[in-house]
């Protein structure tokens, strides 16, 4: 990462601060099938339409392929990187809740709130931020909720410190 990297610094974060994704991301069948294959997920609900039509014909599935939940998580996290962790790196994800299925053709939007801000004990040039992230579809239905923890650089700090 360059010294001129865009994004907030540790000092810019305040508990209760809110973020909203600037754009949405529409998920396609190709996205879902590729992700499912890349992760070796063999659950047929993600790639076998005949299977879902037979075993999940009712609401909310209606025989549709279900998007892999971890793809949804990755997209929601990615939609917020520029505003949150562009000047840092992820330490972990906690308290993941998949609240509603996601289907091909759904457009995902994200928002988040800062829930913890603290100094790093091991890296004095960085701080640790925890945000609660939410993903929504085009209908406003909440799809996923999780806490993302990342280490973010302090203003003026070098990456090597």
From TrEMBL:
MF-aspect GO terms: lyase activity
Pfam families registered for this protein in UniProt: MC_hydratase
InterPro entries, A to Z: HotDog_dom_sf, MC_hydratase, MCH/BMMD
Highest taxon above the source species: Archaea
Protein name in UniProt: MaoC domain protein dehydratase
Species for this entry: Saccharolobus islandicus (strain REY15A)
Organism phylogeny: Archaea, Thermoproteota, Thermoprotei, Sulfolobales, Sulfolobaceae
């Amino acid at each position: 990462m360059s010294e001129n990297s865009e994004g907030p610094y540790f000092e810019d974060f305040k508990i209760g601060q809110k973020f909203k994704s600037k754009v949405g991301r529409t998920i396609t069948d190709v996205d879902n099938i590729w992700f499912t294959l890349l992760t070796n997920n063999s659950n047929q609900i993600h790639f076998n339409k005949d299977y879902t039509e037979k075993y999940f014909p009712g609401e909310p599935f209606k025989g549709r392929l279900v998007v892999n939940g971890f793809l949804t998580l990755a997209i929601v996290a990615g939609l917020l990187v520029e505003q949150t962790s562009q000047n840092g790196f992820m330490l972990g994800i906690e308290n993941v809740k998949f609240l509603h299925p996601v289907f091909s053709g759904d457009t995902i939007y994200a928002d988040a709130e800062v829930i913890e801000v603290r100094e790093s004990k091991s890296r004095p040039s960085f701080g640790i931020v925890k945000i609660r992230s939410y993903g929504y579809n085009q209908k406003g239905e909440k799809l996923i909720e999780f806490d993302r923890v990342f280490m973010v650089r302090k203003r003026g700090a070098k990456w090597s410190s």
